[in-house]
Amino acid sequence: MRLPTNSEHDRREQDRNLKELSFSRLPYLQRVAQLKEQKFPLFFYKYHSLHSNNPENPDEKWEHARDYFINSRFYLSAAVNFNDPFDMKADVKDSVPKEKKQYFLDKTIKRLLPHLTQEQRVLKIKSILNEPEGLSMILKSALGEAARSFGVSCLSTEPCNILMWSHYANHHRGMVFQFNYAKDIHSFQWLQPVVYSNEYPVLEYFERRFNNRFAVALLRKHCGWAYEKEWRFVIPDRANTYQSFNSKILTSVILGCRIESKAEDRVRAMIDEREKLGLGHVKLYRAKQHEARYRLVLSK
């Protein structure tokens, strides 16, 4: 089996960057038309609660809201802290040829144990390959470590889902941020869709792209979650950090149908502050209960 070379990987990355650059240079309406033609979402939504469960910092959720309004950044959580215990699960396989394992183990040991000589690395690799149970434990341990180290932020393409308002926006007392993909494609370069399935993803530990080999586990969820229509920022080694975005991509905010008047006043104050700072105009909407159906409707 021929392994992909670094130059091939670099060419693919360069092609992707050129496509993004070409798209970003189009007039805005042409970008919107192209997204619609490709059936790609134009808007992404972030459900946000304004109620903190942290007694030491009751304004914690407001600080996070300020990150979106003023600081223009997404918080990247660690997957290990998610509410779904099946998040980051995978069927870890070790099925590649011995030669390929040796190649990757050699690269990994060079990185982790640079002080070893070539002869010492060879002995280390033989020791690992002769203990399949130990290797299996190493692979599962690596998956757990990835759940702690990958930075993840979750968005949706659905702004009016009643369950999501209940679960993620404090029983409709919070709000939803709307982000416009066509405003700046580079702000979404790490964003990928979640795939829903009844089966764990099969994850081959010895694949070429070391840092990204666990991303597949973060982009698969049980099909019971499909109503969320989720997309995720998945960034290696960025847990508990921030990912900046172009302030112009935040275009609207939707207030929950049960939001309290004091909370609404604080939201409006942040929008005013944002506009005074020249960070871009934000439209304000309110979610309302439909009078005859189980659904939410938006009013400006």
Describe the model:
By secondary structure, the chain is α+β, with helices and mostly antiparallel strands. 23% of the residues are buried. The strands form 4 sheets. It has a 5-stranded mixed β-sheet, with helices on both faces. It contains 9 helices and 14 strands. It is elongated. Helices cover 38% and strands 22% of the residues. Helix 4 (98-112) crosses helix 5. A hairpin with a 6-residue loop joins strand 13 and strand 14 (296-299). Mean pLDDT is 87; it is low at 1-6. It has a domain at 41-93 and 151-299.
Question: What is the H/E string?
Answer: HHEHEEHHHEHEEEEHEEEEHEE
What general form does the structure show?
Answer: elongated
User: Biggest sheet, in brief?
Assistant: 5 strands, mixed
User: What is the rounded distance between the termini?
Assistant: 58 Å
Bin the strand percentage.
15-25%
Q: Give me the number of helical elements.
A: 9
Regions with little confidence, pLDDT below 50 for 5+ residues: 1-6
Helix content: 25-40%
Overall mean pLDDT stands at 87
Structural class: alpha+beta
Tally of extended strands? 14
Strand order of the largest sheet: 1-5-12-13-14
| Multimeric status of the protein | single chain
Radius of gyration: 23 Å
Secondary-structure blueprint:
Blueprint: H1 6-24, H2 28-37, E1 43-48, H3 60-71, E2 73-78, E3 91-93, H4 98-112, H5 118-129, H6 132-149, E4 151-156, H7 162-168, E5 175-180, E6 191-193, E7 195-197, E8 202-204, H8 215-218, E9 220-222, E10 230-235, E11 241-244, E12 250-255, H9 261-276, E13 283-289, E14 296-299
Parallel strand pairs: 3-8, 7-9, 12-13
Antiparallel strand pairs: 1-5, 2-4, 2-11, 4-10, 5-12, 6-10, 13-14
